[in-house]
Design a protein that fits this description.
Layout: H1 3-6, E1 11-16, E2 28-33, H2 38-51, E3 55-57, E4 64-65, E5 70-71, E6 74-76, E7 84-87, E8 90-94, H3 99-108, E9 111-112, H4 124-129, E10 133-134, E11 137-138, E12 143-149, E13 155-158, H5 160-163, E14 177-184, E15 186-187, H6 191-208, E16 214-215, H7 230-236, E17 243-244, E18 247-249, E19 257-259, H8 265-283, E20 292-293
Parallel strand pairs: 2-5, 2-6, 3-6, 4-20
Antiparallel strand pairs: 1-2, 7-8, 8-14, 9-15, 10-11, 12-13, 12-14, 16-19, 17-18, 18-19
Helix pairs in contact: 3-6
The structure holds uridine-diphosphate-2(N-acetylglucosaminyl) butyric acid.
The site of uridine-diphosphate-2(N-acetylglucosaminyl) butyric acid (EPU) has 19 residues, from α6 and α7.
């Protein structure tokens, strides 16, 4: 039996990629699979591997630029694995749980640690895979264990050492799909104080960044040991407000590209490349993308 027959109830065909990424650009995907359990993720990967079919993992889509045309790779979308369970000072969370929801649930439960992610979009799986963070901290500071399914379908538990977390980076086995994580948090006495802190972080972000448009969050990583952040380097290179087709670099924060008028992926890609070239010409630095181009 082929993987399509095996998992037919979980497959959506001819899917609009725009709907799945926060920048709202892109063409269509031939197949998107929404597994309901980690075992279904395992069965899917086993079947795809057996048939030599490539796949890509898509969580909240906040750091992905899909192509304008048709994507043949199967998309694994673990959004239904969205559990949240408190066990003392730990929480067990599913990869598909939206990161803003994780922050809200933990602060309501009086558990600090992931409050540093206030305002970060996406889902837990992507947050772990890219070690999401802000200037207040990163998710790796709270991760105790990560459950994945490997390319052969088997289950594995990865420690922070296995994941070798770094700035916006984690090391995952090729083809692995994150299904969930155990986070170790710290209980606070004053829940309302924790919720106030989250509110302050959100306010800070709303003031400094364009939070109400279709965008990826920051498109480039900050340089290592930065004297200047990527935002400042892009700003100095005169990129604020530069537009191409329906996309433009935010006039508020130069590290954000926005889809303002039905942009194409090609418009966004052009701006990413132009930004890289202008920063190199202005500051002599090669900035690295946070956004993954498919
Ligand atoms: N700035 C400029 N011009 C700009 C943009 C920023 O002068 O066009 C200045 C700001 O005025 C500020 C400084 O640069 O003094 C830093 O800007 P910001 O506070 O926005 O921080 P950032 O380093 O650009 C990082 C993360 C953000 C995170 C913020 C706040 C990266 C690449 N970015 O941005 O994360 O929200 O700190 O904690 O690490 C993301 O990763 O997607 C992201 C948005």
């Amino acid at each position: 039996m082929s993987w399509e027959q095996d998992l037919s109830a979980r497959i959506r065909a001819d899917v609009d990629l725009k709907e799945l990424v926060t920048v709202r650009v892109g063409g269509r995907a031939r197949h998107l699979v929404v597994p309901q359990t980690a075992d279904e993720v395992g069965a899917l990967l086993r079947a795809l591997t057996a048939e030599g079919r490539p796949w890509r993992v898509l969580g909240g889509g906040s750091n992905v630029l899909p192509p304008d045309g048709v994507l043949d790779d199967v998309i694994v979308h673990p959004k239904a694995l969205d559990g949240f369970e408190v066990a003392g000072d730990r929480v067990h969370v599913g990869a598909g749980l939206p990161t803003p929801r994780l922050v809200a649930l933990c602060s309501r439960a009086g558990l600090a640690g992931v409050h540093v992610l206030a305002g970060v979009p996406g889902q837990v799986g992507g947050a772990v895979a890219m070690n999401a963070g802000t200037r207040h901290g990163e998710i790796c500071d709270s991760v105790e264990r990560v459950s994945v399914r490997l390319a052969d379908g088997s289950a594995a538990e990865l420690s922070p050492d296995d994941l070798a977390f770094d700035y916006r980076h984690a090391r995952l086995p090729e083809g692995a799909v994150i299904c969930g994580a155990t986070l170790r948090l710290w209980p606070v006495d004053d829940t309302s104080e924790l919720r106030r802190t989250v509110g302050c972080y959100l306010k800070e972000r709303n003031e400094a960044q364009p939070t109400r448009t279709w965008n990826f969050g920051c498109m480039f990583k900050n340089p290592p040991a930065p004297e200047k952040t990527a935002g400042v380097l892009l700003d100095l290179a005169g990129l604020k407000g530069l537009s191409r087709g329906g996309a433009r670099i935010s006039p508020i924060h130069a590290n954000f590209v926005e889809n303002v008028d039905d942009a194409k992926a090609a418009d966004v890609l052009w701006l990413l490349q132009e930004a890289e070239q202008r920063v190199l010409a202005r500051s002599g630095l090669q900035i690295e993308r946070e956004v993954r181009t498919w």
